[in-house]
Queue: 2 jobs
Job 1
Amino acid sequence: MTIPSRTTVGVVGGGPAGLLLARLLHQAGIDCVVLESRDRGYVEQRQRAGILEQGTVDALRACGAAERLDAEGLVHDGIELRWNRRGHRIDFPSLTGGRRVRVYAQTELVKDLIALRLADGAPLLFDARVTAVTGADTDRPVVHYTHQGAERSLHCDFVAGCDGFHGVVRTAIPAEELRTFERVYPYSWFGVLADVPPSCDELIYAHSPRGFALHSMRSPAVSRLYLQVPNGTDPAAWTDGQIWDELEARFAVDGGWRLARGPITQRAVLPLRSAVTEPMRWGRVLLAGDAAHIVPPTGAKGLNLAASDAVVLARALAQWAATGTTAALDAYSDARLQAVWRAEHFSWFMTTTLHSAPGQSPFDTRLQLSQLDRIAASPHAAAELAENYAGLPLV
């Protein structure tokens, strides 16, 4: 494949935001080049989110990227909350006008988007490490990168920074023009993959005196489970038996429910934090996905925010390509930041309601339990949770 030196949109980052944006631009007839610093195998194995909102599923279907998702994704019509040895199910469709979510691992979505990109014969370069973006305040920004041992330049009309929180593209924006708001949580998630069928039909979010726990899944045969642990926890310090015992204690509920156990195949500790960078556009540089915002995984927003960024940005670029107007591009940052802060608030709400902070007082615990009781008793409170979880419509 001939490596282009000129394109309309240079997309830096081959994760969900960059790949979906590239797919949407390709369908709109806008040429772009995707540059990913890692090799294909690494990108396709990065373990990340697995919950797709209704809007994300709709966008993937509309661009022809949902064939395997529709065949293999698990439809979920709700979640279960557990506290004080009781469980309460939140039914999404009845509270959201029919919106629901699907469980489909980010690794599989990335594989699907890569396969489509390559089948289209569109430029996708792995092991392409971007070193700088210059000319962000001109109408011809340049992406500088290394690939196959050579230093190269990609001249663009626009550069889309989809390269994560520590990516290079954001550094093209002058530091005095940026503001980053951040919260670091005083606990982490200890996540495990286990070769055992899930013990539930839908996700379980558990508040416990011992700390938070989450039961998720990756397939009908593979369970994904999480425990709240102190920051800095060494995952190797836990035996498999200790992990299962702790999960069982935190999920405990009156009745006949039991947690199925099986071989643990992967384990990792994930720190929790929130971050938002403003603005999401400066000159000809636009940010999307983790390059602009990070959320704790409790609200299942990270992948979905990235997908929404890609959809809105693709529409704005299509408007510019068709009419020459930059109205939608000019509105991109403000519009997306409004949605980002809504998702940040929901993620914060889910996190602080379900986790126990170090040294938390009994008063604060009672407030958490009161909030959970309110969700169980009030259709309005349940609907607020369901609407945010299943995903608010794009504006």
Job 2
Amino acid sequence: MAGMTSSARPLLNRRLAEFGTTIFAEMSALATATGSINLGQGFPDTDGPEEIREAAVRALRDGRGNQYPPGPGVPELRTAIAAHQRRRYGLAYDPDTEVLVTAGATEAIAAALLALVEPGDEVVALEPYYDSYAASIAMAGGRRVPVTLRPHEGSFRLDLDELRAAVTGRTRLLLINTPHNPTGTVLTREELAAIAELAVERDLLVVTDEVYEHLVFDGAEHLPLATFPGMRERTVSIGSAGKTYSFTGWKVGWVTGSRELVGAVRAVKQFLTYVSSGPFQYAVAEALSLPDAYFEEFRAGMRARRDILAEGLTAAGFEVFRPAGTYFVTTDIRPLGEKDGFAFCRALPERAGVVAIPNAVFYDDREAGAPFVRFAFCKREEVLREAAERLRGM
């Protein structure tokens, strides 16, 4: 065909050769094809607060954000993010130089890693990990070094000795996610203090994904790593409106950190989306100032949904790791006589009319993740009850 190259070189950049269509796309398509309840992809099936939706409509009608917003984000949102960090965690950031608005947390992660990692640098990440981590590290030319969270007494825990052993002279950065997707683990004060000490001792940068910061349960506490001694100047903290306010389609995320770190991330971000989500930025600025009652009600509602699904999965015969945070439940399928999460999830829509995600996609060591399957509980209670009933009848 005219215009086609005769070269045998693959079209896709070799760094990305291992990344095909995401499992989320595959399983969501399977849900649609079979009419199954989709508990795979992590998006709510109801919208967030009406007053915040109206704030977005008002911004559209008033002509705010319909053209390119400022590169770092609209001042109202940057100011609201800085106020949120101060009020919640005692972290003071200059909204003009230490806050950057991004197209969701996914862009924030990509921009941070592209900015801070050079070819050959090692990035230590907690495994299992959100799938964009691996792709972003690969695009930067880095080498990912997984440290695996392992099941222990009903939850997945970090082995601090294993983390220390993973750091070498080539390590540039630690990529930390807490509350942790997909396991639901919330790192403790002691674990975070040890991570901070390691980062300071070895002069490491840290990127922390904290998008589930407001979804912690049963006495767990979210503690930003940037609050620990020596960490503010070496930590890029990432947040997002999607998970907290149930507007995942708006794609409004942010980065906070020192002027130098945020400047580096911004240098990359400007060549990715440049800007995005103009009118929604004004709405999210209002959302961040909602009273504490909103966050408490939101958390209580998600905890109730977690319990409905966890109890249903237990009754269906799964081993259930009840999460301390996020809106995902990880299960072990071996009590059901199964051991291959991929095969199990691909058959589940026909067997039970429910879609889930095999955790193995979040592991470098696919065998380590093989028996684990993730279900999302950010759905209406009646949907979760119906899913639980279908699974019990499997």
